[in-house]
Amino acid sequence: MEEGFYRALAVRKEESLKEWEGVSIAGVPATEYVADRCFFLIHFHGVAFPADFDLNRVTVDFVPKASKRFPYGRVELNDRQADDSDAVEGENQETAQASGGGGTATPITHDGYFLTNAHVVDEEDATFYLWGHTVRGMSLSKARVVWKGNHGHNDLPDLALLHADIQPKGHFSFERGDLPPVGDRIITGGYGGVTPNQASGKMLVHGIGRKWNSDVRWRAFIHDAALHPGDSGGPVTSDEGELLGINSLVHSVWQWPRNNLEGYKVRALQPDPEWLSQVIAADRAERRRAGN
Asked: What is the pLDDT of residues 47-60, one digit of tens each?
């Protein structure tokens, strides 16, 4: 049943992008614009991967354990080198045997600040890495959590802010305070399945779960673009490529054995750009004081 569910999502993603063929956003094919800006956020426990870590060595298993802690399920990574008889010894041997999980991070500044979900970084004693396009090419960089909400708390959203000492090749300028009308097309992307991918859908509901007067200002909206485990924290944009927010939670009913999705919808979150800018400014000031 689970395999059928993911196959149905893959078909839905592919079909949703057909209407975007031949369309460009800022001179980039619309079928690539969002995914190319996504970063893969990986967490590992008890091991630090070297700077030249090769993501091509990794095998990926979807673990669809839906729960309050992991509403999407998780993506488990395993280094194939761990199964080789000629696996390297010493420090790299420990690295080869490491496994972890992941999600998606959305770049929002030129100097390495990213949005993702709190549930993606809700891992004690974990080390976080970002893999994606930078001005120096594809790279894996260590990331730190600047701010984290709580996806199980009514007043704290499923949002987190990260920083890495990198310059993304492309980022989303997060300045929009409103949302497009219900029925308008949206595009979303992520690293569901280790490779960047996209899907398209429509805005269904917006303005729900609004917390605009608290210390943490944000609101939620609903769309129907298909997502896979690993797409958590991926960007949701307007049809012009403007960042609206990031994906957080999937709601759907799987009709089996008819193999169709019924009432599929995704909850996404939009932080207040002014509040977010204040958090980033405070962290930049702290980094300057620390000489970073």
From this structure: 555 555 555 555 54
